[in-house]
């Protein structure tokens, strides 16, 4: 077990309230105040995004099931982080740090 | 009855695969998301001189005694869903109580963890990852983390080869109503001519490592499941996350010195799962880039046939 002293939030980390990625309409600021690396940030190519089948969580199965006949959702998609740039469809945030 | 506690977002479909593998193998599973607490999940934990934490975690569909939990699979759950009628101060108070109460009891469970959340949190930090990898005998690229433009120029000169810049923390953010990502950037001379903004926060620079291909090594317990990732475009050559459609995969083996280093790394940070990224040079040397304690693995299993879910099933049981 780690002996490092960490903040209580980090002992039991959860996604932040309001979603894993904070929504903002604010535009980029000026070069002097904007983190340098963000000048290379880009909107992902929506054409490469993975479309997930519609699904609902089944409390008995303890997993998602599709709205229609067919394989369970997890069997239909194997999507790595391929977002489409839509803030309402963020990537699964498990590549990189979670803050 | 011994039960595996799975704590994950309901829409985390790779976790569905783990639940299915566990239940197909005969394990008892209690899956929850922390977002179910306190409105859909009831906690009644008791501790006394006779035994440690016991009592119930109960939903409308099932219940588990804390004393019966033999293993926990923990994967990025959601925040507590508190009543909307609460005031903001009440929400902050209640969230802190929930974290310390529910989270405190769960993290106090003396059982197998994949992985303990405190260990995962700590292992998220790239500087710690790099230092640990180096300590454990893995090759790491020369690295600079700084908010000094002068330090960047000095580092670039000292390296005497191309350098890259990458985010130290999450690469994803939303601004201007758009979701954006910062991938690894191979720094050009023009980039170095204008370093305004370096001083606004920490930036991570590394020496560019010549690569034949990269490897995603998924470590589950003692099992090291490695896949070569071959880039099919210039963008993917710099950062394979930027162009998944160009990638091809192949299961591969891990050189023993690297395997030993990885196992030392896992032990050092008390992890039973991590997704390691390596560069493999044209002469076959493996260089550690990072190890994500909550990395994605489902697509690697799909592309290569590596039995990651089965190994995860075995590890928590």
Task: Give structural notes.
- The complex is a heterodimer of chains A (99) and B (317).
- With 99 residues, chain A is largely without helices or strands.
- Chain A has a domain of 29 residues.
- In chain A, strands 1-2 form a two-stranded antiparallel sheet.
- The two termini of chain A are 22 Å apart.
- The N terminus and C terminus of chain A are likely disordered.
- In chain B, the strands form 5 sheets. In chain B, strands 16-15-14-17-18 form a 5-stranded antiparallel sheet. In chain B, strands 2-1-6-7 form a 4-stranded parallel sheet, with helices on one face. A 4-stranded antiparallel sheet of chain B has the order 8-13-9-12, with helices on one face.
- The mean pLDDT of chain B is 93.
- Chain B is globular and about 65 Å long.
- Chain B is an alpha+beta fold.
- In chain B, helix 1 crosses helix 10.
- Helix content of chain B is 31%, strand content 29%.
- Chains A and B meet through helix 1 of A and helix 1, helix 2, helix 3, strand 10 and strand 11 of B.
Helix-strand layout with pairing:
The complex is a heterodimer of chains A (99) and B (317).
Chain A: H1 8-11, E1 55-58, E2 63-66, H2 73-76
Antiparallel strand pairs in A: 1-2
Chain B: E1 3-8, H1 13-24, E2 28-32, E3 42-46, E4 54-58, E5 63-65, E6 69-75, H2 88-107, E7 112-114, H3 117-123, H4 126-135, E8 143-146, H5 149-159, E9 163-166, E10 172-175, E11 178-181, E12 185-186, H6 189-193, E13 203-207, E14 213-220, E15 223-230, H7 234-238, E16 248-252, H8 256-268, E17 273-280, E18 286-292, H9 298-304, H10 308-314
Parallel strand pairs in B: 1-2, 1-6, 6-7
Antiparallel strand pairs in B: 3-4, 4-5, 8-13, 9-12, 9-13, 10-11, 14-15, 14-17, 15-16, 17-18
GO cellular component, one term (chain B): cytoplasm
Domain ATP-grasp (chain B): 130-317
Protein name (chain B): ATP-grasp ribosomal peptide maturase
């Amino acid at each position: 077990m780690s002996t490092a002293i960490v903040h209580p939030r980090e002992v039991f980390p959860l996604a932040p309230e309001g979603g894993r990625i904070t929504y903002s309409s604010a535009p980029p600021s000026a070069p002097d105040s904007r983190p340098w690396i963000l000048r290379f940030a880009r909107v992902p190519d929506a054409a490469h995004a993975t479309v997930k089948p519609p699904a609902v969580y089944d409390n008995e199965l303890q997993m998602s099931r599709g709205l229609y006949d067919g394989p369970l959702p997890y069997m239909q998609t194997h999507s790595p982080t391929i977002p489409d740039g839509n803030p309402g469809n963020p990537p699964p945030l498990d590549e990189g740090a979670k803050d | 009855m011994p039960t595996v506690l799975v704590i994950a977002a309901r829409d985390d479909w790779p976790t569905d695969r783990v639940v299915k593998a566990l239940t197909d193998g005969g394990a008892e599973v209690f899956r929850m998301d922390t977002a179910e607490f306190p409105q859909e999940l009831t906690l009644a934990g008791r501790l006394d001189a006779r035994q440690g934490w016991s009592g119930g975690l109960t939903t409308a569909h099932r219940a588990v005694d804390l004393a019966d939990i033999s293993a926990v699979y923990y994967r990025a759950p959601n925040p507590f869903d508190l009543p909307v009628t609460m005031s903001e101060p009440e929400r902050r108070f209640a969230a802190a109580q929930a974290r310390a109460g529910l989270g405190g009891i769960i993290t106090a469970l003396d059982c197998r963890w994949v992985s303990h959340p405190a260990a995962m949190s700590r292992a998220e930090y790239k500087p710690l990852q790099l230092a640990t990898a180096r300590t454990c005998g893995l090759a790491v690229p020369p690295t600079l983390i700084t908010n000094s433009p002068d330090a960047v120029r000095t580092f670039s000169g000292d390296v005497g080869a191309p350098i890259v810049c990458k985010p130290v923390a999450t690469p994803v953010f939303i601004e201007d109503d758009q979701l954006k990502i910062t991938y690894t950037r191979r720094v050009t001379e023009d980039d170095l001519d204008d370093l305004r903004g370096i001083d606004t926060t920490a930036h991570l620079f590394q020496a560019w490592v010549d690569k034949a291909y990269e490897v995603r090594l998924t470590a589950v317990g003692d099992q090291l499941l490695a896949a070569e990732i071959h880039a099919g475009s210039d963008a993917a050559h710099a950062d394979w996350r930027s162009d998944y459609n160009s990638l091809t995969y192949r299961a591969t083996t891990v050189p023993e010195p690297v395997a030993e280093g990885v196992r030392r790394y896992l032990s050092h940070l008390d992890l039973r799962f991590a997704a390691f990224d390596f560069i493999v040079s044209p002469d076959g040397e493996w260089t550690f880039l990072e190890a994500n304690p909550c990395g994605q693995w489902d697509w690697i299993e799909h592309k290569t046939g590596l039995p990651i879910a089965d190994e995860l099933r075995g590890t928590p049981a």
